[in-house]
Amino acid sequence: MKSFYKTGLRIGLISYRSNPHCGGQGVYIRHLSHALSDLGHQVEVIAGPPDPLLNAGVNLTMLDTLDLYNPENLFRTPRIDELKDPVNLIEWLDISAMGYPEPMTFGMRVKRYMKGRTKRYDILHDNQSLSYGVLSLTRDLPVTATIHHPITVDRRLALKATRSFYKKLQVLRWYSFIGMQKRVARRLSSIITVSDSSKTDIAKEFKIPASRLKTVPNGIDLDNFFPLDHVKKEPGRLIVTNSADMPLKGLYHLLYALKGVLTQKNVSLTVIGIPKKNGGIENLVKKLDLGRHINFTGRIDHQRFVLEYAKAQIAVVPSMYEGFGLPVGEAMACRVPVICTTGGALPEVAGDAAKLVPPGDAKALEKAIIELLEDEKQRENLACRGYERVKREFTWEKCAMRTVQIYREVIDDYHRL
Question: What fold characterizes domain 3-219+395-416?
Fold first, then answer.
């Protein structure tokens, strides 16, 4: 194995949205780049906002963008001088027409940045922008991409969650970038994905031969997620790590389950994050009269995050679908028993170390929470099994080593043509 990694590669990692604390893509790019660098490879991350907060040893190039999805200045109106750049103009016009152009326009920016620089890299690795600009670079050097899960699933669930014809049109317009992603993915020789479940679904949804998809499971950040054995568990305390209004994340179903649990048990729910003002989650909390039983933490640092896990008796992951499921692995790394759905790849991550329920089934979720609250021995058993499973199966070093093997195969195939 050592001789395989003796010669370091020059790797360009492309990531159009790179939040290092939430969202699987930002976490992925941060930890994979570190692990690749630790293996002795030269890594440059070419990123859009926000800053991915990379460690020393990984080079970072932040490309100028309009940054219209910055939560502190969401959908701001660009200055006139900014719109003199044709890429900025395209982005602004598309957003004004209710589209989501960022994957496409970031690819244009990458193509512009790469002009005269392609010889600096042995391989480019695109983190799910799947844009025409990145595809055009395949003429000059080997390119692969990671698809975490098929975004067609997000679109389908979003359409199902609304009855309004006008809102359905908005959803279709927002997800119009999927056509580009399908066309680009079909022309890449090899694609990385993070679970066998995603592999199957991407092959079906994007009409790509399964043989061109390679599964490399994500790692879990064991430096930032770990047990705090000295912290006392609070009876009846549940934790969930997603406050989003997105139907994909299933928080709606957990709130209905919580309402049912409260008829039998005195419980509280800690939600990491904060919901959209006057959005669906906030309105449902009011409708179900759950306000005094729920604590939304807002944005918190890793130290507080681990403390919140340590105080919880059970972590719940109610997602309708996940391409991998970092929250399951992070909870297990903190030695917290997990209840999760069978949506997408969650059973692959959980293995036999979690209590599984069908996605979208609030009653099943309610029953599982009550059963686990009443069974201390089962909680301890699941917590220990999950902790050992994460340490054994899901390290970023292992992820990076498998990724490098795919890089070398892509490079060899490119130079054989």
Answer: Rossmann fold (3.40.50)
- Domain 237-393 in the same topology as domain 3-219+395-416: yes
- The candidate with the shortest Cα–Cα distance to 67, out of 19, 129, 34, 1, is 19
Give pLDDT, residue 79: 95
**Which two tokens mark 257?**
């389950």
Token pair 């025409």 in the structure block, residue: 132
Give the DSSP letter of residue 417: -
pLDDT, tens digit, 9 for 90 and up, residues 89-132: 999 999 999 999 999 999 999 999 999 999 999 999 999 999 99
- Mean pLDDT, residues 362-387: 98
Alpha-helix residue ranges (DSSP H) falling in 100-235: 102-114, 132-136, 152-160, 165-174, 178-186, 196-206
* The one-letter amino acid at 406: I
Distance CA 99, CA 175 (A): 7
Read off the pLDDT of each residue in 40-44 and give the average, rounded to a whole number: 97
The SS3 of residue 294 is: strand
**What average pLDDT does the segment 65-93 reach?**
92
Reported confidence tier of residue 277, pLDDT bands at 50, 70, 90: confident
Q: What is the DSSP letter of 78?
A: P
- Provide the residue type at 327 as one letter: P
- 237-393: CATH architecture: 3-Layer(aba) Sandwich (3.40)
Angle of the 178-186 helix axis to the 102-114 helix axis, nearest 10: 50
Return mean pLDDT, the chain: 94
Confidence band for 180, pLDDT divided at 50, 70 and 90: very high
Residue 45, CA atoms < 13 Å, CB-side half-sphere: 34
Q: Which of 92, 184, 192, 174 is nearest to 138 (CA)?
A: 184
The domain segmentation of the chain, as residue ranges, is: 3-219+395-416, 237-393
Torsion, Cα 283 289 294 298, to 10 degrees, reads 20
- Rounded to whole angstroms, how far apart are CA atoms 76 and 66? 9
Q: CA-to-CA distance for 198 and 344, rounded, in angstroms?
A: 7
| Whether the bond into 235 is cis, omega within 30 of 0 | no
Q: How many residues does the chain have?
A: 417
Q: What pTM, to 2 d.p., does this model score?
A: 0.90
